Amino acid sequence: MTMRFAELAWHETPMGELSLRRRLDPALGTEVYEVKLGDEYLMSSLFPVAEIALADLGLAELAGEDLDVIVGGLGLGYTARTVLADPRVRSLVVVDALGEVIDWHRQGLLPFAGAVATDPRSRLVRGDFFALTAEAGGYDQEHPGRPVHAILVDIDHSPRHLLHPRHAAFYTAEGLRDLARHLHPGGVFGLWSNDPPEDEFTALLGEVFATARAEVVPFDNPLQRRTSTNTVYVARTAPA
What we know:
By secondary structure, the protein is an alpha/beta fold. The chain has helices at residues 49-60, 78-84, 99-106, 115-118, 129-133, 173-180, 199-208, and strands spanning 5-13, 16-25, 30-37, 40-44, 67-72, 89-96, 122-126, 148-153, 183-193, 211-221, 226-236.
């Protein structure tokens, strides 16, 4: 018999109380996994479309094989799992500030995302993505300073709505230039946002990168009985 509700994990973190929950939605007849930080819902397995699109849109910009990818923000693993589904990907490093979230994947608490922890191409790294962006060595301590082909980020709610004020420096021209330095020529930066496209931020991307655009990603919202949208920003450095 399937339990209607279970709290799979609970942790006190520097950012607040973090919990992973599984519930049976009787209206949809499906199990739903949800992450809460304090009283705020961070993510739900009901709405993975834009997280998947973040990987699909970013990797679609790239030609060639042997792609090295960084994902900032692990969450429920949808972006990372989609990256690994691309056979061109040689390596994936996923950076998350919360070791507890990494443990969820290693302990198998998210069975639909098992490959994120078990695929030999994938490594899960506990670290502050934004601090590592500003460092010359970058995100991968095993290969410090090595450029990558794509950096895909899903951490804050949007460039304006941040999980922590210290993230704000990343969403400036200087912060974005720091990130661009970790990319190969023609490399891709992708960013998930819960908000509609912001013309000001798209223009800022255009100042730093050779190309930039905002893609609106629609998805069915059964809780509100309507179509909702997220945004994925896609930017590329100049080719060699």
